[in-house]
Design a protein that fits this description.
disordered N terminus, alpha+beta, Resuscitation-promoting factor rpfb fold, eight-stranded antiparallel β-sheet, 21% helix, 9 helices, 29 strands
Amino acid sequence: MRKALVLCIAFLVSVGIVFISDSLQAKSLDSASLRQLQGGDAIISQEAVLRPEGEHEVFMIYEKDRLLGVLHDGKKLDALLDRVYTERYENDFPNTELGLGEDIYTTETFTMFDYEDKDEEILQYLDEHDAFSVNATRISFSNGAILYVKNIEDFYAARDEYVLNFVDKESYDLLKNNQKVPELADGEYGDRVVSADYIQTASVSDGLAPVNKIAKTKEEVISYLSYGYDAEPVIYKTVEYDTVQGVAWLEGIKVEQLLANNTDKLTSANQILQVGTELDVTPLNSPIQFSVTIQHKEKKEILPGEPEIIEDPTLREGKEEIIQYAESGSKNVIIEETLINGIGQGGTEISSITTKEPVREIRKVGTYIEPRIGSGRFVWPVENPVISCAQGCYYGHMGTDIQNRYNLYGHVLAADRGVVEINSYHPINGYYYVINHNNGYWTYYGHMARPGFMGVGEVVAQGEVIGDIGMTGLASGPHVHFEIRSSGGMMGNSLPFYQFFH
């Protein structure tokens, strides 16, 4: 009998321990939410008391990682979603459904507590903050970027229109249909598109999205592809002497993009600008990348090299007689270049065919000819020259800015032989160089990467490397600020350089 009594007491104690353990566990599972509600950390505070009847199910609603409140009746939330959809979104998004916003989520849980009923206040908060999402088409790019659209057709149309910022329509249509862009004919020069496609892949699915993140028109899709979400427009107000090319150069964007940004105000790169015109100069900042590979075919000059000199003691010093005039040769060169979102990634020469051999100059010279005197005939100060800002492209710009198209930090070349007169630095012009050609002309080279390679007083040959391209001083990109100045020294006039090149 005593043994049976001991077993009975042990059983009752074990049952009590299990009951107390379960109660403590229920309290601990709910303690974080309870602290938020009673400690003022919840968005809507609710009193909580221990429930004598045991556990019951409630809905916890969170905004981001913060508890919004405890909802007693989940059917009220369903009713709110139905009402808001009918009143606000059904016209724009018919035949779909409404859900909570991307930062709002709910969990169903069982609790040992009774919470103060604030269902109406919780639902009012959701309503006033428009914390809802609509079912839309979700486009996920392989780099993690996400776009929501109302109509998938708008995305396809916008995608094909957006790429025309980087590739012409005829070439794009051919490539999209797996056809090749025809080769350039003999004697034809320019660009030929080899390939064009998005670097990122995309997948399409359905998903809930906040209304302000859903592109409802083709134009809104193009805006996303150009700038992403929440882009801040950049506005430039024109001043006297502004040009379309100059504004684009000052703001660091392409002329084509400036025209595309302002179709309601600009029709041509040569358009005269009225003072006070507000132009959209927002640079492209796309969340995805479009790659275009082009083959650029151009006719390049082959310099004839140094003249063949025949010394003639019958000619006095400084006199000369040309027996054979120099003629530049030419070659057809194809450079293959890849551009990502319109920005060049560098080019590689893939072919070169000489079409005309150069002819060296042959001349008789006096025995004591002065080699410090320039020829009066100038060559480009960089290889692969392209003009980024012509003389007068903005007010006060007296020279011509020249870049090496395929090697932005390549060499700077002496435009003609002469004597180094200045090798110095200026806060605006950076490292700069002045060569006196001793024939009434001086040439000026600004924004070099470092001091020139030859010192003052040294003689340089035409086409000799005198430094490297840079962007020292006040420069928005690597280039050479080049000037040819007339007699009158470095205080003389800066001349249009085209008249000196052949």
